[in-house]
From TrEMBL:
GO molecular function: alpha-mannosidase activity; carbohydrate binding; metal ion binding
Protein's name according to its UniProt entry: Alpha-mannosidase
Keywords carried by this UniProt record: Glycosidase, Hydrolase, Metal-binding
Domain Glycoside hydrolase family 38 central as annotated: residue spans: 287-357
Gene3D superfamilies: Glycoside hydrolase 38, N terminal domain (3.20.110.10), Glycoside hydrolase family 38, central domain (1.20.1270.50), Golgi alpha-mannosidase II, domain 4 (2.70.98.30)
SUPFAM superfamilies (UniProt xref): Families 57/38 glycoside transferase middle domain, Galactose mutarotase-like, Glycoside hydrolase/deacetylase
A Pfam family that the UniProt record links to this protein: Glyco_hydro_38N
GO BP annotations listed: mannose metabolic process; oligosaccharide catabolic process
InterPro entries: Gal_mutarotase_sf_dom (IPR011013), GH38_C (IPR041147), Glyco_hydro/deAcase_b/a-brl (IPR011330), Glyco_hydro_38_C (IPR011682), Glyco_hydro_38_cen (IPR015341), Glyco_hydro_38_cen_sf (IPR037094), Glyco_hydro_38_N (IPR000602), Glyco_hydro_38_N_sf (IPR027291)
Similarity section: Belongs to the glycosyl hydrolase 38 family.
């Protein structure tokens, strides 16, 4: 009988930060990497070492050990230290799809620069797998995946090797680390360990691999130091084991050997969020809402605004800020590491994460400030007009929607028009008179203080502004004799637009969709429950009853011809903390203020909740009533298409008796929107930073988790997660900041329809709700609204036309996830996706574009064939800019 071959893979899973800070991690990294380099150089018998598939460890190490660059590069080139393809081990469900692409882009390019990027989509510890990861890996030429979490035993075909398939049909060869990434962490040839622990583990692995005798034994753990005795241990094990042959190896070799020997044909599709063999921490999506919200803000600014704006600017002769973006992205990748974005960290670490996001946000604002200012100044020189503002469309599709902006004027009354004089309708949301202050004037008699005239700061809503695709248009501000329409108080208890009516009566609101006359009564309610969990998982308190809001109070209504708002409040009396919950004592007043907004031309109801949280140990959800009776499933977006998820999970009836690591609760992650649909009508919710939802089937409600408030990192024996605490199991770390005290705001929008959901319409609405435009006014009244306006900057381009478009994408079924400079610094990249069920031809036009080619995600040319985007797939194109529009 031949022996089964055991591939012993030494590795370290390197958390960037967690209950320790990133500074702690980097100090440890430098010491461990020093030792690893020295060990591998001195011991040729030590096959190699996997450093968690992330290049960030190399960047951090070389910051403090630059003199070791050549030594490290030699070991990476020789495939003895494995880094890449990730920059950091990103959570694949909580970050933007484009962030995952960039993480891999920086990871692969950085690792290749060091000598080799590991050809394994390595996913040892992230909390669930995005269903587009196979396609993303294939886009980088990565053929294999090794993962730990998210697969049920009955999804397998008696093999831990399988083919994992994305919605677009792309497949990768996968291996499931069924017993985790650390079974060989304490590998030893001692007889007790060998017979009592190692062989039983290997017997389990062998029983799970029907068609191969090749077994993977990952031999490492979190932040571990390389085990220098492994070669001798393997030699001793081989001498004493008559059933298993041991070999020091790596993940690439294991996958190549195993898949060359056997062609596994079993296919698993979809997102992988099984809770049987390992914890997924489904409810971590609502932990530290502030981190999730800041991450949404920053991702949106970089991906949807700054990068395309910088691309427009580059085509006009300005410098693309690649070096700044490199720095911003790398800092963001640290935030996207699975623990970091999850928020399951110490307070010190979470404070660092927030500071990192605030810094990136400031960088994005500053870069956009300079670009907008330089372009607008050049437009002003060409048009000869001072009183202008420019609207930049950062989408390669024509913008014909409203624009919200802030204008500064000397007079309170003004008109807005195009350069050709055509007027635009607008209303004033808010207007304030500001003192001009004083300035110092140098005279022959010395410095004198001079009073500066005051001016008006006005928040305006302008309707139906037409802006060319991936370009800009220029609007003028002219003095007006008549007063503009203001958003003013009204005694009405109804707001409406062309699509909806929201009425308030007897403490409840009713939403009606006009076209179908479909109505939903009491459509917003709030639920408060105890949270007896920890930073990883929400946990219900046994015996606790949900506290629901009753009737609301109408605070006020404001109306204008183009915008209408209704403000209401819900009051609750809640237990102040977990002890009060257990005692049945309600001793804290809790207020939720809600602003509902309808805009004239929108098929949306915008919703904003404001809460000043003064309660601990609880979870707050908004329950949005839908028109669907007992919805069996929800539809949401993930990556480049829709995903359908069941409202109830039948495994909830068996999970305890079958020993699942965590309850498979049907609580899911939302990327941009979640919805329910039936012949009775449909309702979709579009979110900004809210990341968790559940469909309450019996009530027909869509529950969006606003936030969790819990002050512990690590707690044993939760209701939905039995056994040890996650992460650190020998110490409970208090995290008072995670109680989320203070003012919180939450934004989302509701779309109600009497019709079934339409895929294209859902993605169109998501694009519209996440503003894909920016504005800039050429003015000198206020130099603090945009922080860099008060400083002098160069003006590389002197004159530009009043209107401009770089490129147009003409197809309503295609959507854009990225417009940016190529990694080579020479061309422009545009990534387009098709969420529909049929392939779509791409029509790309632009007077200045040339050398149009298809490239893969690594931005390597594929061909210049006709551009077709596959069903539920994406396509990346590259083009150059030919010519110059600067005057």
């Amino acid at each position: 009988m031949s022996k089964k071959r055991v591939y012993v893979v030494p590795h370290s899973h390197w958390d960037r930060e967690w209950y320790f800070t990133i500074e702690d991690s980097n100090l440890l990294l430098a010491e461990n990497m020093d030792h690893l380099i020295e060990l591998l150089e001195e011991n040729s018998d030590y096959h190699g070492y996997v450093f968690d598939a992330q290049i960030s460890v190399v960047d951090e190490y070389l910051k403090v050990r630059p003199h070791n660059s050549d030594r490290l590069r030699s070991l990476v080139e020789a495939k003895r230290i494995f880094v890449g393809p990730w920059y950091t081990q990103a959570d694949s469900l909580l970050v933007h799809k484009e962030s995952l692409v960039r993480n891999l882009l920086y990871g692969v390019k950085g690792a290749e620069k060091m000598g080799h990027s590991m050809n394994i989509g390595y996913l040892p510890d992230i909390f669930g797998q995005n269903h587009y990861l196979p396609s993303l890996f294939k886009g980088f030429g990565i053929d294999h995946v090794i993962l730990q979490r998210g697969v049920y035993s009955d999804q397998l075909d008696e093999n831990l090797n399988f083919r994992w398939q994305s919605p677009d049909g792309e497949q990768v060869q996968a291996n499931l680390m069924k017993i985790g990434y650390g079974p060989g962490k304490f590998l030893s040839a001692d007889e007790d360990f060998h017979k009592d622990r190692l062989q039983p583990m290997l017997d389990t692995l062998a029983s799970l691999n029907r068609d191969t005798d090749r077994l993977l034994l990952p031999s490492g753990g979190d932040q571990v130091l390389v085990r220098d005795y492994f070669p001798e241990t393997v030699e001793k094990l081989n001498a004493n084991d008559d059933r298993y042959e041991y070999v020091l190896s790596d993940y690439e070799t294991f996958m190549e050997d195993t898949w060359q020997e056997t062609s596994f044909d079993h296919v698993i599709e979809g997102e992988l969020i099984a809770t049987e063999g390992s914890r997924i921490h489904n409810t971590i999506r609502s932990q530290r809402y502030d981190i999730k919200k800041w991450n949404h803000i920053v991702e949106h600014k970089i991906i949807n605004q700054l990068e395309p704006l910088a691309t427009i600017a580059q085509s006009l002769g300005l410098r693309y800020p690649q070096e700044w973006l490199d720095d911003m992205w790398k800092n963001l990748f640290d935030v996207h590491a699975h623990d970091s974005i999850g928020g399951c960290n110490s307070d010190d670490t979470n404070e660092d994460i927030i500071k990192r996001l605030v810094k990136i946000n400031r960088q994005a604002d500053g870069l956009m400030n300079m670009i907008k200012r330089q372009i607008t100044k050049a437009v002003s020189e060409e048009t000869g007009s001072e009183d202008i503002f420019v609207v930049f469309n950062t989408m390669p599709k024509l913008h014909q929607k409203s624009v919200e902006t802030v204008l500064f004027t000397k007079d309170p009354d003004f008109n807005v028009r195009y350069l050709d004089g055509e007027p635009l309708d607008y209303c004033i949301r808010k207007q304030d008179y500001l003192s001009g202050g004083k300035k110092i004037v140098v005279t022959a008699e010395g410095d004198k203080e001079v009073e500066i005239p005051g001016y008006y700061r006005t928040e305006v809503h302008i309707t139906d502004v037409e802006v060319p695709a991936l370009g800009y248009t220029t609007l003028q501000i002219v003095k007006a004799a008549e007063k503009a329409d203001h958003l003013a108080s009204s005694k009405a208890d109804v707001i409406e637009n062309d699509s909806y009516v929201v009425s308030f009566s007897d403490g409840e609101m009713k939403l009606t969709e006009k076209t179908s006359n479909l109505s939903v009564g009491n459509f917003i309610q709030f639920e408060d429950t105890a949270d007896a969990g920890d930073s990883y998982d929400y946990s219900p308190l046994p015996g606790d009853q949900a506290i629901l809001t009753g009737k609301a109070k109408l605070i006020g209504v404001r109306k204008s011809p183009f915008v209408e708002e209704m403000t209401i409040e819900h009051e609750l009396i809640l237990p102040v903390d977990l002890d009060s919950r257990k005692a049945g004592v309600k001793n804290a007043s809790f207020t939720i203020r809600t602003v509902l907004e309808l805009r004239k031309e929108e098929d949306l109801l915008r919703v904003k909740h404001e809460i000043d949280n003064n309660v601990h140990d609880h979870r707050v959800r908004v329950l949005v009533q839908t028109p669907v009776e007992q919805p069996a499933a929800s539809i949401a977006d993930q990556g480049y298409s829709l995903i359908e998820r069941p409202s109830e999970n039948p495994r909830m009836d068996i999970w305890r008796e079958q020993g699942y690591k965590e309850a498979p609760v049907p609580i899911y992650t939302v990327e941009q929107f979640a919805s329910v649909d039936s012949d009775q009508g449909s309702l979709a919710a579009f979110t900004k930073g809210l990341k968790e939802y559940e469909v309450l089937k019996e009530k027909g409600q869509l529950a969006l988790t606003l936030f969790r408030s819990v002050g512990l990192l690590g707690r044993d024996d939760l209701e939905w997660r039995p056994g040890r605490a996650s992460g650190i199991n020998n110490k409970v770390v208090t995290t008072p900041d995670a109680q989320m005290e203070g003012e919180l705001t939450f934004d989302y929008a509701i779309q109600l329809s009497g019709n079934c959901l339409d895929t294209t319409a859902l993605f169109e609405t998501a694009d519209h709700y996440n503003e894909r435009y920016v504005t800039y006014q050429h003015q000198s009244l206020n130099t603090f609204e945009e922080r860099l306006d008060r400083f002098e900057i160069p003006q590389p381009v002197k004159r530009l036309p009043g209107e401009y478009s770089l490129v147009t994408l003409d197809n309503e079924n295609l959507f854009v996830s990225a417009v940016k400079q190529a990694h080579d610094g020479k061309n422009i990249i545009m990534r387009v996706y098709n969420p529909t069920h049929h392939s779509v031809e791409m029509d790309v036009r632009g007077d200045l574009i040339g050398n149009l080619k298809r490239v893969n995600l690594a931005e390597v040319t594929i061909d210049d064939a006709p551009l077709t985007v596959p069903a539920k797939g994406f396509q990346t194109i590259q083009f150059s800019v030919e010519g110059d529009l600067s005057l």
